[in-house]
Amino acid sequence: MPDRMYHGSSNPRLKTLRPKKIGKTKQKGVFATPRRGLATFFSLKDAKWKNLTREEGNWEVVGLTEDQLSKKGYLYHLDPDDFEQYEGWQYISKEPVQIVDKEVIEDIGKELQSLGFKIKPKVKKSKSITRL
Q1: For the chain, which domains are there?
Q2: How far apart are CA 44 and CA 41, in angstroms?
């Protein structure tokens, strides 16, 4: 069992994590990971698994704008004894989980880069104005 678990969120006011169904999973629970980078990624408000790819063993963040990536996020530290392995790097608790500590991530994109993630931001298309 890992010595710590992380849960990323854009919500700064969490005290307890309550089980819920996330995405297309069939399981209802509190999801966490021992991988700091993955939890940091999921502290992005708009983060989805489709925005995360793995190229030659390296994580890449794709399809999010620089504005989305530069947001503040929160990394919640959790007791690993509350979890069981779910799938790959994901762990699950079917019971509410108390937060042990909270870490503020000022710029999620920069933090991900410092953890070795490649960032390929989506470029916002500008609206062109046609003059007659």
Answers
A1: 5-122 (3.20.170)
A2: 6
Contact in structure between 95 and 17 (CB atoms under 8 Å): no
Q: Give the single-character DSSP code of 69.
A: H
Alpha helices in the chain (DSSP H): 36-41, 66-69, 108-114
What is the per-residue pLDDT for 56? 64
Per-residue CA distances from 11 to 17, 24, 52, 62, 71 (Å)? 11, 21, 21, 22, 12
Question: What is the three-state SS of 15-44?
Answer: CEECCEECCCCCCEEEEEECCHHHHHHCCC
Structural tokens at position 33: 């990971």
Predicted local distance difference test score (pLDDT) of residue 47: 80
Residue 88 tokens read as 């790959």
Q: Is the pTM of this model over 0.85?
A: no
Q: How many angstroms separate the CA atoms of 28 and 66, rounded? A: 32
Beta-carbon contacts of 113 under 8 Å, excluding residues fewer than 6 positions away, are: 119
